[in-house]
């Protein structure tokens, strides 16, 4: 290896350990605790390392570097020299203190943007990639209000709820941190390139993965553990029963973090994960102030950002990980899926058949405009103005379509001029 300055020799030692195949962060922490800096680990015998962290960890730590290591080190040094980029090691005072409470903090972190945001009070706000319009509005509103209160909003830069959380977080003094599952030199999904650039300037992007690491499904649960580790609490907005957000909630719970979830309609598929987590002990929340109060965060004396549309205040909020917003249906979800959520069990069907021998006629096919309107409506009470904004339909077409859906029994009109999708609509 070519001659390096002392700081780069130290970085090379950390990088070697970070890249060592099979050396898990928890085992590495044991070795560092016993021997100090990485260079001291390399000076030990395999037997000495094995006594502390096991034979597999000893072999991994002392394995020679591959032929590509020098190029990887050069790439890290070059990346670190770019404006706004930092590589923080486990022994660095700049290392996020919250992550040190984890059993397996990463040895190296790649950070773009405002490092100080990793040292502030923070709340994670996560949820479904296939978010409903209501879920997106709730996520943005919660994130904005938390950020205005001086709390940093942490999420995973995914589509749907994560993106909305970052956008809301950027509107307040608390800012936002995106924890990503790829190398810090890549952006995934590609649709969030512009958002990532904005976060890199106004917030922070954090990754533990080596530069150039592409998006792999196996990386995201590990990414979720860092999200959980950085924060005091996790708020889940819309989550299906099998959701990565529920993984984040479980990991956060294991680390002693508070879990919150937004409740939603019992007919909404994206409410089910939230409701499940609430049943398991997550806190049901309806306002950002409830999250601040539960965590003991005093609201800063800062100008409040105007809340989102009035309908977002009617039902929406936070409660447990993988929360579902009040709307709860996947935007653009096929009607067949929505119908399945209200399908009776065989026993119920038999009972209904005994009482009513003649089956109800099937609903007529839904026109594209009506499908768009139903998707925008979701499962929570919504005003005409909000529907007009979500669908971008002309007034006359909107009124006509609503009337057709009402006559077909798929939409009901509530007091106060609000509309709600029926359980079978």
From TrEMBL:
A Pfam family annotated for this UniProt entry: WHD_DprA
| Record field: compositional bias (Low complexity) | 338-356
**Per the record, which residues fall in region Disordered?**
323-356
Question: Matching InterPro entries, A to Z?
Answer: DprA, DprA_WH, DrpA_SLOG, WH-like_DNA-bd_sf
Q: Where is the Smf/DprA SLOG domain?
A: 86-295
SUPFAM superfamilies in UniProt: MCP/YpsA-like
Query: Which Gene3D superfamilies is this protein grouped with?
Result: 3.40.50.450, Winged helix-like DNA-binding domain superfamily/Winged helix DNA-binding domain
Hey, what's the signal peptide range on this chain?
Answer: none
Q: Where is the DprA winged helix domain?
A: 359-417
Q: Which PANTHER family match?
A: PROTEIN SMF
Q: Which family is this protein grouped under?
A: Belongs to the DprA/Smf family.
Q: Indicate what this protein is called per its UniProt record.
A: DNA-processing protein DprA
Source organism of the structure: Paraburkholderia dipogonis
Instruction: List the gene name.
Output: dprA
């Amino acid at each position: 290896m070519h001659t390096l300055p002392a700081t780069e020799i130290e970085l090379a030692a950390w990088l070697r350990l970070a890249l060592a195949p099979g050396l898990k962060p928890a085992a590495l922490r044991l070795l560092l605790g016993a021997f100090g800096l990485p260079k001291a680990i390399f000076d030990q015998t395999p037997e000495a390392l094995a006594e502390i962290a096991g034979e597999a960890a000893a072999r991994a730590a002392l394995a020679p570097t591959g032929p590509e290591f020098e190029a990887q080190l050069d790439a890290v040094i070059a990346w670190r020299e770019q404006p706004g980029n930092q590589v923080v090691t486990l022994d660095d005072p700049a290392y996020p203190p919250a992550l040190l409470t984890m059993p397996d903090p990463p040895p190296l972190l790649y950070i773009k943007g405002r490092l100080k945001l990793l040292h502030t009070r923070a709340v994670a706000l996560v949820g479904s990639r296939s978010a409903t319009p209501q879920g997106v509005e709730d996520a943005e509103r919660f994130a904005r209000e938390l950020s205005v209160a001086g709390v940093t909003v942490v999420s995973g830069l995914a589509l749907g709820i994560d993106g909305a959380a970052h956008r809301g977080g950027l509107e307040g003094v608390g800012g936002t941190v995106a924890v990503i599952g790829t190398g810090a030199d890549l952006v995934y999904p590609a649709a969030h390139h512009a958002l990532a650039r904005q976060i890199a300037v106004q917030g922070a992007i954090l990754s533990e993965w080596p530069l150039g690491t592409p998006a792999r499904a196996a990386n995201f649960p590990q990414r979720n553990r860092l999200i959980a580790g950085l924060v005091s609490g996790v708020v889940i907005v819309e989550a299906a029963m099998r959701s990565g957000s529920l993984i984040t909630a479980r990991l956060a719970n294991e680390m002693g973090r508070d879990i919150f979830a937004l409740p939603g309609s019992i007919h909404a598929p994206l409410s089910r994960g939230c409701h499940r987590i609430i049943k398991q002990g997550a806190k049901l929340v309806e306002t950002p102030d409830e999250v601040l109060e539960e965590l003991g965060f005093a609201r800063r004396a800062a100008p409040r950002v105007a809340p989102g549309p009035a309908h977002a205040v009617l039902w929406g909020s936070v409660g447990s990980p993988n929360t579902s917003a009040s709307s709860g249906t996947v935007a653009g979800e096929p009607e067949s899926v929505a119908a399945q959520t209200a399908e009776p069990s065989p026993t119920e069907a038999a009972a209904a058949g005994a009482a009513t021998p003649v089956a109800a006629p099937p609903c007529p096919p839904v026109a594209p405009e009506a499908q768009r309107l139903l998707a925008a409506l979701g499962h929570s009470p919504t005003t005409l103005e909000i529907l007009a904004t979500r669908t971008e339909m002309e007034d006359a077409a909107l009124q006509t379509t609503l009337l057709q859906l009402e006559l077909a029994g798929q939409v009901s009109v509530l007091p106060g001029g609000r509309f709600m999708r029926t359980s079978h609509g």
